[in-house]
Amino acid sequence: MRVVTNKFPERFLWGGATAANQFEGGWNKGGKGPSTADMMTGGTHTTARRITPVLEEETYYPSHEAVDFYGHYKEDIKLLGEMGFKVFRMSINWSRIFPKGYELEPNEEGLKFYDDVFDELRKYNIEPLVTISHYETPYGLTEKYNGWASREVIDCYVRYCETIFKRYKDKVKYWLTFNEINCLTMALGAFMSGGILVNGKENSELSMNVKDNPQLRFQALHHQFIASAKAVKLGHQINSDFKIGCMIAYMTTYPNTCNPDDILLAQQKDQISNMLCGDVQVRGYYPKYATRFFEEKGIRIIMKQGDEEILKEGCVDFYSFSYYMSAVASADPNLEQVGGNLLGGVKNPYLKASDWGWQIDPKGLRYTLNHIYDRYQIPLMVVENGLGAVDVVEADGSINDQYRIDYLRDHILQMEEAVKDGVELIGYTMWGCIDLVSAGTGEMKKRYGFIYVDKDNEGNGTLERAKKKSFYWYKKVIETNGEDLE
């Protein structure tokens, strides 16, 4: 029987989320090596980012400076503290700890940087939520092993996990093993999520039209499943108080009509895009529907003896996910299509869209929370949700982002409805609490934050921080534990 409550839990974790490759900068400082993100050029809403096998002179790589959290972390964390953040989701740049990814000894200067960051968060009583791998595979692993396509990378990852678990065992409680691990179920994820060069070496676009190799992607995904399970078991051995979760890019998909073909298509998209990774990481085994999918796609997952036991022993403690929009599936290929976060679909006439064409669906978040919780019955966290928009700095310096407040309010209201439904929701970290580089397009123009950063798409700007209207609104939301949303 579900227990009905009318508000968020007393110790609800309100906060915001970032990723090192979009936020941190300092790409070659402090002994850091290049990551896959450091090999990706800038782009725009209409021009795809490129992946370059070597760095090109006079080419702009947004991650190299990003918004320079590396040099502004004290200022930035102070602003988060002023808002009253309970939690800050961030990632550790793997190549800052192991510059090539496969070294046997870590880079002490990199470890010290995160010590300083965690100490600064503690000053403001902000709990770090650390993503261990967030589209930041060391490029050395791509060059040596073709990234996660090779099983050798599992040991490199576990060595990295052991290093940071032991170093920060008294400073970090909440961990996520891989960001949006299900990105590898899509062609777009081969390089961004897996560090895989499909052609061995390439200078290609980061787009839905990249050359694909499903066998390579799903084998890499299996390697990440094993690595995640090993990390969970190891983390619990190092500190039994660790809470280690999965992170899924949840792509909620509705059938376009009650045509059974539409309904089955929507179900299949949910199974492969969303549930496959959740089932393996939460339940500890591959679901039966995956068997047919692999057979029909000509995919053969190569498992080593003991892999099934590793998956069973490394189930996550909680389930986290990103939610920005919903999509619509139809068996009719002639209907109008729209884009979105990783996955597009048929246009939904009942929804408005963002400046980037993502369909805005707050009620879909309530539906998704119930859908996930009914399946897994473990604590949930919404660790990415937000509105990418063009923000205008007025003559007086103010930034009136009421549209962002409206978006977040509507989604928070639906989270509250899900809590009333009985969902065990423990935290919310809206995406891009400080403006950062867009992962998909490499833009700065597409802004998410409560805090504005003076930088443009070409990398020009002072990096000065400024509070938006939404800064003060979210501060009030946290102070009242979600009760005052006006």
Automatic annotation (TrEMBL):
Pfam families: Glyco_hydro_1. It comes from the Bacteria. Keywords: Glycosidase, Hydrolase. InterPro entries: GH, GH_1_N_CS, Glyco_hydro_1. GO terms for biological process: carbohydrate catabolic process. One of its GO terms (cellular component) is cytosol. GO terms for molecular function: beta-glucosidase activity. SUPFAM superfamilies: (Trans)glycosidases. Belongs to the glycosyl hydrolase 1 family. This is Glycoside hydrolase family 1. It comes from Clostridium cellulovorans (strain ATCC 35296 / DSM 3052 / OCM 3 / 743B).
